[in-house]
Amino acid sequence: MTDSSKPQFVLPSINDNEGGWGPSNDVIPQQFREIPYTPYSKSDKLGRVADWTNPDGQKQDNNQTTGGRQGRTGFNRFNREQHQAYGASFATAFAYFHGEDESSFSVVDNRSSGTKKQALKAVGGNNARTSRTQTKQGYRTVNQRPTTRYQQQARRRYGYKDYEKPQRVRNASINIGADWKVLDEIEFSRLSKLNFNIPQATNVASYGFVNVYDKAYDRINTKNEKMLTHIERVKYDSTTSEDPVIQQFIQENKATVFATDAVLSLLMCATRTVYPWDVVVKKQADGKVILDKRPGGVFDFVTVNENSYDPPADSDKETINSWSALCNEATYINQNFSRQVVDSKAVENFEKANPFATSETEGELASCGYRYRSFDLTNPDAAEDEEKIEIIVRTEVDAAIKTGNKSGYATIRALNEFDPTAQGAGGALPWKKSLDSQRGAVVATEMRNNAAKLARWAVQAILADAEQLKLGYVARYNPKENSRHVILGTQAYKPRDFAAQMNLSLTNGWGIVKAVVDMCLQLPEGTYIMMKDPNRPILRIYHVPFEEDLEEDEEEYDEEGEEEVEEAEQN
Q: Of the ranges 74-78, 403-407, 419-423, 500-504, which one carries the lowest mean pLDDT score?
């Protein structure tokens, strides 16, 4: 073997920095010379480089954690390296500070059984099991408790995925023409900040008659239910512009703005609405403004669970629990309930006869009193020469209330239950089991699922100056069919107390009306559409060049509405 085959060992060259600690500048590569390095002390040990559990450079042992003489903070042979190290006060460009405590992390649950039970109680028992299921399904959020008991019921009933359904896409309430021009857009967030003092009301005229409410229906309960009957009566609900009384008021120049309680209540409660709607605004040459509705539009139907987190399905397949079918059913129930709970023999006439009745329908009229009332919308700080703004509203009452020698008026409405286990029920309790014993929970659920509808009913009663708002609870006789219904109970509220219970601000409602009226008074002569966006909380104002465009839509709605009403009556 040659000497070259023998193993060679060469000592590495040592670069000694005689001027200080650390590497000398002559051996540092050019690209690394400007990079700072962390200073260190002579007492530092090489083992500290790998001490990841103690990044601050402090020595810890069991003696320090348990106390005693070794655990004191003085300088001694047990903790002598706790002193300030050289260079520790310099900029710590290389220091690492760990802000999270990982000592409690473990891939295995090594807690005792008692600790596990306490942890389950802390997060809500059944909800902990729900959280584990969510984790398996890939949801990042765990251990989130439902905010209300109704949401707990809904999650158990429909499942978590159904609860997190995406927002539905709805169609507009009217076909928007290609030549319609958008004049303005108003977000509901802006409308909710408006306020105006509640104006004083003045009774202008009253027409029609009302029957006296039958107090026997106040004694109905779930054990003493009564079937809802179909009663043939005629009730007129003409538009604002076609009302002969309002036409006379316009000619006599008694006000600047004219509307009905249905239109005005919708504007006052606009921020609570979810479904699309529209209001026709007609600006006349003399400066008068008419807030009107389209015949057969959304005003002629009663919504069901509009504000529910999972509203009724709106699909092409027609079922008894679809959105359109439930609206027709609720409208049918409201019409017949208000006619059934009054005594047809006890009549209280108003000042003048029904302005819409004819010789053919005079003996078939339903109980309804029309009260035309004026509200002053002039600014309190307006100048003396500023024109006064008044709005005349046609309001309605459904019955007379006799209490001793006193007499008052009431508006009558009905809440309806279709199927508490179906989609769109909104976590409602079954009325036949819970209405008598848990009336408060039932009412709270209805206030949440039908916030817009109940708010409008309360506002309509307030506008009409009704002493009571009578609510009936009507359910299906069989949840699987919508042709037969039973009355399970009634309840009376003072309208203002009911509005306060729903957290309904009347000053905000009048603020919205005031803003809409001021805007309409500045518009030029013509026809306009005020429409709620079908999928966003936005109010849009369109200019309609030709009023005939609205008449075509009205004919379509009339045909559809007549067919739906005929089907409901046949059922």
A: 74-78
Q: Give the C-alpha separation, 34 to 371, whole Å.
A: 90
The C-alpha angle with vertex 441 and arms to 444 and 396, in degrees rounded to 5, equals: 45
DSSP SS3 for 432: helix
Helices 439-449 + 451-463 axis angle, to 10: 90
Q: How far from 77 is each of 40, 143, 271, CA to CA, in Å?
A: 21, 49, 74
User: Would you say 427 and 494 are in contact if contact means Cβ atoms under 8 Å apart?
Assistant: no
Mention every residue, 6+ apart, whose C-beta is less than 8 A from residue 398: 210, 338, 342, 367, 368, 369, 410, 411, 412, 470
Q: Could you tell me if residue 275 is left (phi over 0), alpha (psi between -120 and 50 degrees) or otherwise beta?
A: beta
pLDDT digits (tens, 9 = 90+) for 75-120: 344 344 444 444 444 444 445 455 555 555 556 665 555 555 554 4
- The single-letter code of the amino acid at 438 is Q
- Residue 47 CB burial class (10 angstroms; 0-12, 13-18, ≥19): exposed
Please tell me the distance from the alpha carbon of residue 64 to that of residue 66, in angstroms, as a whole number.
6
Q: How far apart are CA 221 and CA 466, in angstroms?
A: 25
| DSSP-derived secondary structure letter, 352 | B
Mean pLDDT, residues 172-200? 93
CA dihedral (113, 116, 122, 123) in degrees, to 10, reads -140
The pLDDT value recorded for residue 43 is 59
